[in-house]
């Protein structure tokens, strides 16, 4: 089985978190993508961040109709900081014999060298960058990341850019405005309104 893992804060989930993932799933013929909402970092109290469980519920509401797109509470069940490398080890145990793919937005890919035990990530999963290879600016990359790209260890899946940002969405919601039409699945909009998540 080919399993994609896609971590993020999903605060809230929006179209930019869904369409590129579907494109990667199709392009790489993945059987499943597991969304992995991050726990709320205890040392970074950000009053505007919705609770982890509410972000998980929103992810599920957004993905409900697609059996291939699933959500895992793994990172929020830990009583310690969740690092991607640990989560990949967890999923390697959960899906023995499967090929793991680590789905990354371009910004996350460029930040990889600041992640814990980042050089091990590529041993555990194939990084999949949801952008064109040209966008990664290979000549300016960390030399080891550039080597991964040159050696074909990183997959790039180009997709139509989706002009939505969770930060902008939260700013609108805090001011009592609705998300721009089509940017957030309707069930998610209903849910975040029902519980006044960003007010
Ligand atoms: P914030 O504005 O809160 O930082 P974010 O969407 O960038 O939001 P995450 O929820 O952690 O933060 O994002 C998960 C992943 O989704 C990241 O790798 C990010 O690059 C990617 N992503 C976010 N928005 C888009 C978008 N519009 N198109 C493509 N990828 C996106």
Structural account:
By secondary structure, the protein is an alpha/beta fold. The chain is built from eight helices and six strands, in the order βαβαβαβααβαβαα. Strand 2, helix 2 and strand 3 (69-71) form a beta-alpha-beta unit. Bound molecules: adenosine-5'-triphosphate. Adenosine-5'-triphosphate is lined by residues 8-11, 16-17, 20, 104-105, 107-108, 130, 162, 164-167.
Quick description:
The protein is built from eight helices and six strands; from the N terminus they run E-H-E-H-E-H-E-H-H-E-H-E-H-H. It has 199 residues and is an alpha/beta fold.
Tag the structure with descriptive keywords.
Rossmann fold; 8 helices; six-stranded parallel β-sheet; 199 residues; alpha/beta; binds adenosine-5'-triphosphate
CATH architecture: 3-Layer(aba) Sandwich
Bound molecules: adenosine-5'-triphosphate
Helix content: 25-40%
Number of strands: 6
Rg (C-alpha, Å): 17 Å
How far apart the termini lie comes to: 42 Å
Class based on secondary structure composition and strand pairing: alpha/beta
Question: Could you state the CATH homologous superfamily?
Answer: HUPs
Number of helical elements = 8
Query: Could you say what the CATH topology is called?
Result: Rossmann fold
Number of domains: 1
- Which percent range describes the beta-strand content? 5-15%
Largest sheet: 6 strands, parallel
> How do the helices and strands follow one another from N- to C-terminus?
EHEHEHEHHEHEHH
Compute the average pLDDT: 93
Overall geometric form: globular
- In the predicted model, the low-confidence regions spanning at least 5 consecutive residues are none
Q: Strand arrangement, largest sheet? A: 3-2-1-4-5-6
The CATH C-level name is Alpha Beta
């Amino acid at each position: 089985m080919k399993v994609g893992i896609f971590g993020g804060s999903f605060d809230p989930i929006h179209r930019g978190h869904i369409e590129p993932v579907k494109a990667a799933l199709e392009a790489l013929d993945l059987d499943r993508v597991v969304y992995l909402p991050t726990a709320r970092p205890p040392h970074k109290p950000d009053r505007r961040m919705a609770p982890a469980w509410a972000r998980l519920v929103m992810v599920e509401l957004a993905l409900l109709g697609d059996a291939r797109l699933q959500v895992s509470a793994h990172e929020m069940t830990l009583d310690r900081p969740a690092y991607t490398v640990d989560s990949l080890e967890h999923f390697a145990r959960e899906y023995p014999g499967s090929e793991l793919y680590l789905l990354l937005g371009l910004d996350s890919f460029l930040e990889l060298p600041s992640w814990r035990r980042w050089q091990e990530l590529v041993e555990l999963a194939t990084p999949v960058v949801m952008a064109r290879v040209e966008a990664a600016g290979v000549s300016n990359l960390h030399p080891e990341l550039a080597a991964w790209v040159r050696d074909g260890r990183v997959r790039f899946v180009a997709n139509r850019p989706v002009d939505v940002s969770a930060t902008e969405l939260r700013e609108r919601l805090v001011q009592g405005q609705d998300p721009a039409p089509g940017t957030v699945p309707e069930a998610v909009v209903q849910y975040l309104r029902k519980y006044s998540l960003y007010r």
